[in-house]
Design goal:
Strand content: 5-15%
Oligomer: single chain
Shape: elongated
Distance between the termini: 70 Å
CATH topology of the largest domain: Hect, E3 ligase catalytic domain fold
Number of strands: 6
CATH superfamily of the largest domain: Putative Large Serine Recombinase, Chain B, Domain 2
CATH architecture of the largest domain: Alpha-Beta Complex
Number of helices: 7
CATH class of the largest domain: Alpha Beta
Helix content: 40-55%
Length: 185
């Protein structure tokens, strides 16, 4: 049945003074009968009402996605080197490219820029690949890590070697930036 105030059809409606209300209209409804009758006649700011409903729906979707992530299955678009097959991540035709990016980065003295040029990717894209824990067999959702059900493309040894090298580059880059700024003053 539709809400007496806004007309929204909600399965979990509430009743007040014999009128059915959605839970948002019920929450704001006055508890005195005369004030309630006036409340039913007032205009509705639809934008605000839709914002509440959108947020409620978004929250439910996020909870569902977190439940999926906890089972080790993907909840977002798969990264380069993986495809979704039967609800799970599976290596695709680019898996060897991802493995090559990691091993080249760890074993050779390539800069991020030259590595990006060599593989036809942006420098930022290379950084994202090198720091993506999905390649280690994990699923990250909402800042939390879960054990994935998929096969890792990269061994822990290679992944952590790449992290150490990225950290070293990051520290030397920030030192270099500070020196450049100091020289300008």
């Amino acid at each position: 049945m539709a809400c007496a105030k806004c007309g929204y059809n909600e399965p979990k409606e509430k009743t007040l003074f014999g009128k059915k209300l959605c839970k948002i209209c019920f929450f704001y409804a006055p508890q005195e009968k005369h004030a309630f009758e006036n409340y039913l006649e007032e205009k509705i700011d639809w934008r605000i009402l839709e914002t509440f409903r959108y947020h409620e729906n978004l929250s439910a979707r996020k909870q569902g996605m977190e439940r999926v992530a906890k089972t080790g299955r993907p909840v977002t678009r798969p990264p380069l080197g993986y495809k979704v097959l039967n609800g799970k991540l599976a290596p695709d035709e680019y898996a060897s490219k991802v493995h090559s990016i990691f091993t080249t980065f760890v074993s050779k003295n390539y800069s991020l820029n030259s590595l990006a040029r060599n593989y036809g990717l942006s420098t930022n894209g290379i950084k994202k690949i090198l720091s993506n824990r999905t390649y280690l067999g994990e699923i990250k959702f909402s800042g939390r890590l879960f054990k994935g059900t998929h096969k890792p493309l990269i061994s822990a040894e290679i992944f952590y070697a790449a992290q150490r090298k990225l950290n070293k580059i990051s520290k030397s880059g920030s030192k270099q930036n500070r020196q450049e700024k100091a020289n300008k003053v």
